[in-house]
Amino acid sequence: MKPVNVGICGLGTVGSGTFNVLARNQEEISRRAGRVIQVAQIGARRPNPAADTSEIPTTNDIFEVARNPEIDIVVELIGGYDTARELVLEAIANGKHVVTANKALIAEHGNEIFEAAQANNVIVAYEASVAGGIPIVKAIREGLAANSINWVAGIINGTGNFILTEMRDKGRAFEDVLAEAQALGYAEADPTFDVEGIDAAHKLTILSSLAFGVPLQFSKAYTEGISKVTTDDVNYAEELGYRIKHLGVTRRTEEGIELRVHPTLIPEKRLIANVDGVMNAVLVDADAVGPTLYYGAGAGSEATASAVIADLVDTVRVMTADSSNRVPHLAFHPSRLSDLPMLPMDEVETAYYLRMQAIDHPGVLAEVTRILAEQSISIDAIVQHDTTEELVPVVIVTHKVKEAAMNRAISAIEALDSIHGEVTRIRVEALDAQ
Amino acid sequence: MKPVNVGICGLGTVGSGTFNVLARNQEEISRRAGRVIQVAQIGARRPNPAADTSEIPTTNDIFEVARNPEIDIVVELIGGYDTARELVLEAIANGKHVVTANKALIAEHGNEIFEAAQANNVIVAYEASVAGGIPIVKAIREGLAANSINWVAGIINGTGNFILTEMRDKGRAFEDVLAEAQALGYAEADPTFDVEGIDAAHKLTILSSLAFGVPLQFSKAYTEGISKVTTDDVNYAEELGYRIKHLGVTRRTEEGIELRVHPTLIPEKRLIANVDGVMNAVLVDADAVGPTLYYGAGAGSEATASAVIADLVDTVRVMTADSSNRVPHLAFHPSRLSDLPMLPMDEVETAYYLRMQAIDHPGVLAEVTRILAEQSISIDAIVQHDTTEELVPVVIVTHKVKEAAMNRAISAIEALDSIHGEVTRIRVEALDAQ
């Protein structure tokens, strides 16, 4: 089947990430989408050293992309309001599907844009506009479609959350952390959009409409920033059992819909109170499913690209649906499943927690550690408490090793005269990202 | 447009929940799906007092539902293997779409069932089969379609997680908590499926295929239960900075795919280590987006029904697509948006954290609390530390009150001679489910 031609407008952080991920994962993405998705044109004023786009036809007039008859899907990544609005409306008028990451555009001009898309029978997809790589638009719009939603609360600005996390963890002042965030590239030179809550209010406006089925109404949002929060407040909150987060809250009440962004105390036992640094999370309370939470990177080049490309795959799946199975049962098209082997457990590598009962005499630990060393198993931690009992519990946490080697070590340890009974073994997973 | 006719087979916990949620949220669900979804037939041996199905034609031969020419979508909620497999294959052969919550069926017979569905051009949807109400199948299959997935790790059996949480929080023994879980209805009379990890392995098998594009291979899963975990292990883990969770892990390595369910130590700082009680969570690590986490109820009547009905809405959206916009832009069809008002901030009710600088003399607190009482604002907590300074910080957490009343109170407090400067006000959200 003929590839789908995508035109990328804007080659900044998200544009270059989208280009790179599409190139790197092209084979897997086409196994999911059922067709190759190729970048056929780029509209950008200048190249971006972060992406090697030298082989792609490039124009510095983005409107050329919206008019190019070869282009099936226009990806709007220029940001801002007026030019982005014109570009998207022109693409729609020319019968092209549109994917955008532009929260300001959707929150402020979404009603007009969706009406044009409906009239022209094209898709306008905007997963990347809210909470970066977290598929929250899809979760609310499709995954929770059974529910009457009570409220949505989100940490949907990574810069603000980074600042509040640093203030709490390190007792630093707001201005001090903001300056560092700007140096690290988390915060813009003009941080108003982030720290005064406007960016979060754009995203919350979109979530509110998705949850409650009302038109987009950004002008009704109440917005309060975090610039007045002091370390005193952070400490008092802690003392009272809370964390301060810059939260967007939209709630359905009998009188109407609440739509508000402001610093908020949240009980520390809530999972969302423990979402730290630049990470985002959205908590949805709905009548059938109860609370569900969605957590991940809310910004960044490839994290946002992940959502842009998910929208591309969705669009291609609709364009290409030759059967009812728009989405393949097992995510990849049936003819494109792979035959990677499942690893036997012996070959799996993890760290281990071992607990054993040792007879309390000198040299036991030396015997055990010798056996581990023979299997090339290195030790991360040992716990051995003083006791007056004859049998002493010994707990060892190891570094990573193959299951087969650990099985041999455990058999050898259990055969020691100085070890009583079986060795308890529980695997350890750090679950750090690769 | 004519309603879509659904036949529900099985009227147990999930069947009755599905019936009830469809009835209760019918109006909202049809605004999302674009058509009314009605239960036209039930196949069940006996009525369930939890659902008033008296007006729905009911048969005790479930195969009648699969053959009924009036039925568009068959919902398989009988559970088990052989009869469920026959029912689903018969429905497919008769050209009906199928929605199922049956993880055992998909994990063990999914390859055969999907092949039949593909050949007959019908949908087989199974969101409810993994992690109950969490839209994790959709997240991986669609939301993360841009990514090469590194690994998936999940707490995907609520019973096991409840037991481990109780062991940790209350120092109780495994057998003791299991007996309580059985009494509460969280665990079956025969708890083998839950505590030995078979149920989790079924779900993990499905997640593995979705993540890596391989056929379902339940027989290759390594499965180890939690019945040997002792309170000693739980305590040592805590001492070492870990939590023990019954985790399903599937990971792509150069040699092949790991597919394993076992008790696992996880660093306590990870969000997933703090998922407690009967809740489920799935953590996905992917190359573009990084780690994302999905949290919610993994079982229960209406939580599972939420996923079943999401699949029904998905199916109806495909059946009814008269345009490219299979899913409405704002989740609800454009003609069915509602005009609920956005509440002005004055009308919004929250609790408040107030911090003020008081001149240290007797009676200040009495003045402040009198003002709060005049606005009917009741106090949850007061913090006032001894100090040798002239100005004493006073922190008050209130119960819920409308913003307008709080604004009046703050103005009055700021006007007091004994209060210096402005009152800092931060809103408090408990974020408990309604």
TrEMBL record, chains A, B:
Recorded metabolic or biological pathway in which this protein acts: Amino-acid biosynthesis; L-threonine biosynthesis; L-threonine from L-aspartate: step 3/5; Amino-acid biosynthesis; L-methionine biosynthesis via de novo pathway; L-homoserine from L-aspartate: step 3/3
PANTHER family for this protein: HOMOSERINE DEHYDROGENASE (PTHR43331)
Alphabetic keyword roster: Amino-acid biosynthesis, Methionine biosynthesis, NADP, Oxidoreductase, Threonine biosynthesis
Positions with a binding annotation for L-homoserine: 188
EC numbers for this chain: 1.1.1.3
Residues at the active site: 203 (proton donor)
Positions annotated to bind NADPH: 103
A Pfam family recorded for this sequence: Homoserine_dh
Matches recorded under InterPro entries: ACT-like_dom_sf (IPR045865), ACT_dom (IPR002912), Asp/hSer_DH_NAD-bd (IPR005106), HDH (IPR016204), HDH_cat (IPR001342), HDH_CS (IPR019811), NAD(P)-bd_dom_sf (IPR036291)
Protein name: Homoserine dehydrogenase
Reactions catalysed: L-homoserine + NAD(+) = L-aspartate 4-semialdehyde + NADH + H(+)
CDD domains from the UniProt entry: ACT_HSDH-Hom (cd04881)
Residue intervals of the ACT domain: 353-428
Family stated for the protein in its record: Belongs to the homoserine dehydrogenase family.
Lineage, top ranks: Bacteria, Pseudomonadati, Pseudomonadota, Gammaproteobacteria, Oceanospirillales
